[in-house]
Amino acid sequence: MEPPYWFEQALKITPASHQLQVMDCDINYLRWGAEASKRPGILFIHGASAHAHWWDFIAPFFAADRPIAAIDLSGMGDSGWRESYGSKVHVPEIAAVLADAKLGEKPIIVGHSFGGFMTMCYAHAHGEKLSGAVIVDSPLRPENRPDNRPGGEKPRLYDPPKRPPNRIYTDKDEMIYRFRPIPPQFCDNEYIVEHIARHSLKECEGGYTWKFDTTARVSGLHDEPLEDYLRQLACPKAMIYGDESAIFGPDVVDYMAPIFDTANPMIGIPDAQHHLTMDQPLAFVTALRAIFAVWDV
User: Fold this and answer.
1) What is the Cα gyration radius of the chain?
2) Using CA atoms, how far apart are residues 241 and 135, in angstroms rounded to an integer?
3) Alpha-carbon span 89 to 143, nearest angstrom
């Protein structure tokens, strides 16, 4: 499939890559847009096993009049790897990039899936420093609350699993062909899938492998009261979810809806799955624009 005009134009607005050290780990981020603006900047945060380039074709829609950044959380993308992960390291990483990228006094953060959960954690700790937090298809369920676990057992926080090696491929094109998002979903926009896949691999001894650390995925995710964090945020909040998401079904919508209201909207995108920036990118941009209009930011 030939990429549409809007996609080609978006990729012509190339970001600058930046690195900084956070808690003895190299953290990479991408930066688009103006050096300074009266409008709050935006930091995009990817999902588990993903990377900053998932936002390459989304960020340019907002870069004309405000600064934009997208982070590679540690263990993913072009950032370094750690012995253990979780909000204890990802929140400081987000804070460091917000400061280094010069996104303004009160930026906006937008986090997808695992990145949405880390957005909840950051906004819980620093909500007064934000103009808003947008959570994208990050479901909360009553059984995930730490105090609802059977027997009241408390898990060990951020206990890292064993690190199985990523598979090594000798053929880059085979990797791109085999690339599937997690959870897997079909996507008609093959040009988007290929773009993301090409940025998901790296050279290694013997060929090519995936960029993510297998132990970084959702480490310690539900050891914190994320629902309480979201309810008590000291900044405006919004939720965008896919109507056809495999992990955000009607039960999740019903459970989470009371957390939001007209000033803090919850927006479902028709015909969108979990990775809604892949299958409904323009609808996602429209939803974000609508939220920013409600917030007047």
Assistant:
1) 18
2) 8
3) 25
Q: Cα separation of 164 and 157, whole Å? A: 20
CATH class assigned to 5-142+215-295: alpha beta
Tokens of 143: 């059984």
- Cα–Cα distance, 196 to 185 (Å, whole number): 14
Q: Which tokens is 182 given?
A: 């997690």
For residues 279 and 243, the answer to whether their CB atoms sit within 8 Å is no
Tell me the pLDDT tens digit for each residue of 205-215: 999 999 999 88
Residue-wise pLDDT tens digits, 85-125: 999 999 999 999 999 999 999 999 999 999 999 999 999 99
Q: Show me where the domains of the chain are located.
A: 5-142+215-295
Alpha carbons 219 and 162: distance in angstroms, whole number: 12
Expressed in percent and rounded to 5, the helix, strand and coil fractions of the chain are 35, 20, 45
Q: How far apart are CA 230 and CA 222, in angstroms?
A: 13
**Can you name the residues that pair with 136 across neighbouring β-strands?**
112, 240
Q: Which residue, among 264, 255, 275, has the nearest Cα to 133 in the 3D structure?
A: 264
Which tokens in the block code for residue 20? Answer: 């900084």
CA–CA dist 224, 144 (Å, integer): 9
d(C-alpha 106, C-alpha 114), whole Å: 23
pTM: predicted TM-score of the whole model, two decimal places: 0.94
Measured distance CA(237)–CA(131) in Å, rounded: 9
pLDDT at 164 over 80: no
Two tokens, residue 246 = 């495999």
